[in-house]
Amino acid sequence: MDTRIIEGVLFDMDNTVLRSRIDFAAMKAAVADYLRAIGALPPHVDPREHTTATLLALAAAQGGLTPEGHEEAMCICTVHEKAGMHDADLEEGATELLEALRQRGLRLAIVTNNAREAAVEALERTGILTYFELVVGREQMISMKPHPSGYLVAKAHFADVPEQGWIAVGDSWIDGRAACEANVPFVHYGTSSEALDSRGIPYAGRIGQLLELLGFVKGA
């Protein structure tokens, strides 16, 4: 990471600030079954090689996903998200990190593939919603991560933060891909960056504990 002054942080939500209990495998399987049932997903596609978002993007690119079909797929996702968010806890160190960043005057936002309503509900219930000036859910995106539109929406919202004033943090390769394509340096939160390395996704650093992120914003 270079010595640029960081003025804002774009956070993923699930398994980044919240310890999500969403069964992402079950959600992806349910969406894949639905897409196959309506003929929007080629039979040779292996869902194990995709995320829910990339399955939907593939179905849309194939031309078999109508707006009504997309809406139904989103309803399937929302059911799984709300069930998984019901008992979600904070990631260790989340409140301490957010408070420290706020004390330093940084602008904070959430960019999540979840429905915005479900995200806001979970953030409010866990007591950290007020730290974020903006919550970008999938409804505000052209397409979900790994598409960069969620990050671009967030950057556009904070017109006073310079282009080089952002970093993003998340736990998944889709966060890294989206951040990279939005020209935002990405800090990977997790025990291994193998998924990013295997896809050639660059990242500014890796942290195993959330409070380590403070090392990337010393210039703030």
TrEMBL record:
Upper taxonomic lineage: Bacteria, Bacillati, Bacillota, Bacilli, Bacillales
Protein name as catalogued: HAD family hydrolase
InterPro entries tied to this protein: HAD-like_hydrolase_sf, HAD-like_sf, HAD-SF_hydro_IA, HAD_2, HAD_sf, PGP-like_dom2
Keyword field contains Hydrolase: yes
MF (Gene Ontology): hydrolase activity
Source domain of life: Bacteria
EC category name: hydrolase
PANTHER family: PHOSPHOGLYCOLATE PHOSPHATASE (PTHR43434)
EC number annotated for this UniProt entry: 3.-.-.-
Key words of the record: Hydrolase
